[in-house]
Write a structure and sequence with these properties.
Length: 130
């Protein structure tokens, strides 16, 4: 029997355009809100066309020593240049990036997932200290 983990890919985002990059703004402090941005295509731009696009991004957190993963947010990316005119690119595109304002009370690990309609699931992680 297969598990989801067998299908999730990871790599260095400087060499692979599908890996979600996690960026934490400033120096987070316990109990204070801060911003986390998840972007696909930070170093190598990901195509954003009707045929090839990032469909969604998710952000998770697990505190140091914790046993539960918390989903912090999900961003659906819906506009990929689709058009009623088959020969023309559409009027709107959603960039594969999302920001989440969060408050944490403990340090731990942030984990992000992205889903490419052609190349599947990708993940990355980033340690966060408070």
């Amino acid at each position: 029997m297969s598990t989801l983990g067998e299908w999730i890919k990871s790599a260095d985002f400087k060499n692979e355009k599908h890996v979600p990059v996690i960026e934490v703004s400033g120096k987070p402090k316990s109990g204070e809100q801060f911003t986390i941005t998840v972007t696909v295509g930070k170093e190598i731009p990901h195509p954003n066309t009707p045929e090839h696009f990032i469909q969604w991004l998710k952000l998770y957190f697990v505190e140091d020593g914790g046993k539960v993963v918390y989903e912090l947010g999900k961003a659906e990316l819906s506009a990929h240049g689709a058009s009623v005119q088959k020969s023309d690119p559409g009027p709107a595109y959603t960039a594969p990036s999302a920001s989440f304002n969060v408050t944490l009370n403990a340090g731990g690990t942030l984990m992000a997932e992205s889903y490419c309609n052609i190349h599947g699931l990708w993940e990355s992680s980033e340690k966060v200290s408070l």
